[in-house]
């Protein structure tokens, strides 16, 4: 959630930044609600103080003075009763607007609103040439008996799959490969909870803006994470960290769940964008002024993980208007897939 004090101190920076997400008008609405909240807060506090003074004075007063003070307390109480619901409503509206307003993009994020506006940073490796039409991994997996989407759909619905045999060994080998590199780099491996409370989703920026893509259980009201980032972000919630210990780095491995359906025709027949998948996530608690260097550090490790597999890939810088709500800058590593 954005800091309303920071917006108040430098509104032009937020207008300029949020304009790149086509949301510049949100700043003025936030400031209007904030000003109204502050005015109501001051008035309610003044009235409560007056109410307390008059209530104490009633015990010492007599006759007409006492009746006057009783009338004064009644008048003040009525005004407080009228203003308190207004204050609560303004506070709720401001809190909701701040929660729905995305982060300000970093100046190095390119302009644009779609994945086509992303800027390629670099490429690594060259895809090999084939003398035949390569099949994609989903088709090959079915032919080799290592993927079963038909039974997955029968059991759970579309975009669920059974992984069988050697492909399971490959997946765990890839997880081990990533964790080995991350451990050497100082990341602590973590298997976190995949069910979290609502406040963890809000604090990590996935609620309320990404609500349609999140599974929630009933009646427990626990949320299935779409990334272990949520659980890792909540790991130190409510704690005060020693600055000398930063950065603190974690490598989370978990099953992840997303309701999103993907883009038909660009997701390999459902195997590129499924509802359930396993992922290794890098997460770092760092000083704000060092966070951009930390992002480059994490990117370098991700490239190392792919590079050691000898998989051609390219790095892209995501467009400002295509960033997730909590993100200020994001790199995508797009690995080459023979059948894509």
> Given this structure, which CATH class of the largest domain is correct?
Alpha Beta
Mean pLDDT: 93
Shape: elongated
Strand content: 5-15%
Largest sheet, described in full? 3 strands, antiparallel
CATH superfamily of the largest domain: Bira Bifunctional Protein, Domain 2
Question: In which order are the strands of the major sheet placed?
Answer: 1-10-11
Cα-to-Cα separation, first versus last residue: 38 Å
**CATH fold label of the largest domain:** BirA Bifunctional Protein, domain 2
Number of helices: 10
- The quaternary structure here is single chain
Q: Assign the structural class, choosing from mainly alpha, mainly beta, alpha/beta, alpha+beta, or little secondary structure.
A: alpha+beta
Supply Rg. Answer: 27 Å
Series of secondary-structure elements, N-terminal to C-terminal: HHHHEHEHEHEEHEEHEEHEE
Relative helix content: 40-55%
Low-pLDDT windows of residues: none
User: Tally of extended strands?
Assistant: 11
Total domain modules: 2
